[in-house]
Write a structure and sequence with these properties.
By secondary structure, this protein is of the alpha/beta class. About 40% of the residues lie in helices and about 10% in strands. The protein has 20 helices and 12 strands.
């Protein structure tokens, strides 16, 4: 009996454990049955999307930041170029990622991958030329047919080889925009240059009916009318923007520069006539010499309204310059004179003969030596540099430019390089545009210390920062000089940063006085994006962590 009872005591816990395990198994099985079995994601059928819709989706993904073929806003010289190298690289990274998804996406994104090509190094031009050649050799579809915009901007030591450029243009029949910013190799010491890669042959490839924007650089001393001979075929009927610049290896004649005289007489200009017709041209930017202006005077440009001029030999007083403005000045709405008044004044030492005759004819009317206001009667927007200087003939005020001291119909004046003049102030640190200023704040008081400083900036008129620049802007507000003036715009992005991110007290003092002076005249002073600058925006710029935005009222 004792043995049986002992056996019972031993087996009872074992049975209980077994029963507990069985109960847990039954509970787990019930829980598994109640759970809804979901299919794995890999087994889900994807919906069919037509390739046309995929193409639209990829197009919007590639153009989310900007459209490189939309240059309608870049006709005005007041607008900064929307396409920068950093923006281009970010856009290309997105396009490259889309092209690596699948073969279908690669074929759909190939059009956008090649539509805008920015060459920033010589190796990139060589790689693109090799790709296009190998596609032709292997009888593959050419990627060059997708190239719509070609931008070449390289360092001086990384310029593109003319042979590579020729290859790229040979396989780019649908090119709409071509820009060469001094980035093609040219040597005057080359013994036997390839005639297929000459500037004239390259221009023939570019000057076709599809081209809308053209930036062209001349690298040698060949006469301008010979370089531009391909335009005489008058095929560029859609050309809207033309930029012409010269990068000649030889120096100009010093005697001609110092005398202000042209190298050609009035009779010599007759052979410079060219039969060039550009019916759609609206914007022209030139950095050329006096003879070139005489050539451009003979061109037919009926819709030209925007002009940016920078004379490479300071021949603003030459007869070619006069002929050009007498022929096209009446159509101009926007004019930019790139050279500063101070630089021009140093070279404008003697008055040429044709201007002396003009002065004698208009002596009784007291008109300026260069009647630019008469040549451009419909001018509405004028762009000049900030480094204007006092002129000895008008010591009481500073004109925005020596060639245009006044105009009755100008409504907007844009000023470049204001940031450079602000940094010339001896009490303004050179890193003012990079390092925000730390203003002291009071603790527990109703008015912080920066408020006191902000109000005190308008008290001391004798210590105005950048006094010549302030006087130049104040001279713009004279009603007898520009009676129709409504807007003055700062075109410098560096100046915008100096003004909006906790500016230095000297910079803030300058802008406070400028805005107050403009408010008294009823003129809006705008930043580089066209937003008016107000005292409230300047006040917000001094607060920590809150860059100023444009205000909404003149006061």
């Amino acid at each position: 009996m004792q043995t049986a009872s002992a056996h019972h005591r031993i087996t009872t816990p074992t049975r209980q454990k077994r029963n507990m395990r069985a109960l847990l198994v039954r509970m787990r099985s019930k829980l598994r049955r109640t759970r809804v079995e979901e299919p794995e994601p890999s087994h889900l059928p994807l919906p069919f999307i037509p390739p046309e819709l995929w193409g639209i989706i990829i197009q919007h993904a590639c153009l989310c930041s900007h459209d490189p073929l939309d240059t309608s806003r870049e006709l005005s010289f007041l607008e900064s170029p929307s396409t920068q190298l950093a923006t281009y690289r970010a856009s290309m990274a997105t396009k490259k990622s889309l092209s690596l998804v699948s073969k279908q996406w690669n074929a759909l994104s190939r059009n956008f991958l090649y539509e805008f090509v920015w060459i920033s190094r010589a190796a990139q031009a060589k790689a693109l030329a090799r790709t296009l050649l190998m596609e032709y050799v292997e009888n593959l579809p050419s990627s060059g047919k997708f190239i719509r915009r070609l931008h070449i901007e390289t360092p001086a030591l990384e310029r593109c080889a003319p042979a590579d450029l020729r290859t790229i243009l040979d396989y780019s029949p649908h090119l709409d925009i071509y820009s060469d910013h001094h980035s093609v190799q040219r040597s005057i010491y080359e013994d036997a240059p390839d005639p297929r890669c000459s500037p004239e042959e390259i221009l023939k490839l570019v000057a076709h009916p599809r081209i809308r924007r053209l930036s062209w650089t001349s690298y040698d001393d060949v006469p301008f009318e010979l370089h531009m001979a391909p335009l005489g075929s008058n095929l560029t009927t859609r050309l809207e923007y033309l930029e012409l610049s010269s990068r000649s290896p030889s120096l100009p004649n010093l005697s001609n520069i110092l005398s202000g005289s042209s190298s050609s007489s009035a009779k010599d200009f007759e052979h410079l006539q060219m039969n060039v017709h550009l019916p759609a041209l609206r914007a022209l930017k030139v950095s050329l010499d006096n003879n070139t202006f005489a050539v451009l005077a003979s061109w037919d440009m009926p819709n030209l309204t925007h002009l940016s001029v920078m004379s490479s030999d300071f021949s603003y007083t030459g007869e070619g310059f006069s002929r050009f403005f007498q022929a096209h000045g009446a159509k101009l709405i926007q004019l930019e004179l790139g050279h500063s008044s101070s630089a021009l004044e140093e070279y404008y030492l003697t008055t040429p003969h044709h201007l002396l005759v003009l002065q004698q004819q208009n002596q009784n009317h007291q008109q300026p030596a260069i009647p630019l206001a008469e040549w451009c009667p419909n001018l509405r927007e004028f762009i000049c540099s900030a480094d204007a200087e006092w002129h000895w003939q008008s010591p009481d005020w500073i004109a925005p430019h020596i060639l245009l001291p006044s105009h009755p119909r100008v409504e907007l004046i844009g000023i470049r390089d204001i940031n450079t003049r602000l940094l010339e102030d001896p009490l303004t640190p050179l890193d003012a545009y990079r390092t925000p200023y730390t203003y002291p704040y009071s603790c527990g008081a109703d008015a912080s210390m920066d408020d006191v400083l902000f109000d005190a900036l308008m008290c001391d008129d004798a210590d105005t920062p950048c006094f010549p620049l302030f006087e130049q802007i104040s001279s713009l507000l004279r009603r007898d000089a520009f009676p129709a003036l409504r807007f003055v715009r700062d075109l410098s992005t560096e100046s915008h940063r100096m003004r909006t991110v906790r500016p230095h007290p000297r910079v803030l003092q300058f802008w406070r006085k400028v805005v107050a002076c403009c408010a008294e005249r009823g003129v809006w002073f705008e930043d580089c994006s066209g937003v008016n600058i107000t005292q409230r925006a300047l006040r917000r710029a001094t607060l920590p962590g809150s860059p100023a935005d444009g205000g909404a009222s003149l006061l």
